[in-house]
Amino acid sequence: MVRTYKVGLGLNPVPDKERQGDRATPEGEFYVSTKNNKSAFYLSLGISYPNAEDAERGLRDGLVSRAQHDAIVKAIKGKAPPPQHTALGGDIYIHGNGASSDWTWGCVALENEDIRELFDAVPVGTPVTIKP
Description:
By secondary structure, the chain is of the alpha+beta class.
């Protein structure tokens, strides 16, 4: 069964995330890279942003160094959390605290009962697709 959820996105909800501070939500293929049951936003599932495509773009555009690019790609290949503190941004989560508006700094917000359902159902490594 496919379940859909109402979501709140970043304060800049239309474009794909390009860099730290743009308040856009990343689009693409990711995986759950961490689970946090002590989140400031009820519960949260960390996603593997930046992904390899983001790393390539960041290298091409001069936002990340070759070493940062390589560290991101290595983490993605190993299904580990990628580096979170580059000019591409990071700390992107699916979390609770409400989906009635676009209010996050780039995360995906759900109603608390919806993030509880997901949190209980999905293990680290679960694929996540964020589409425009």
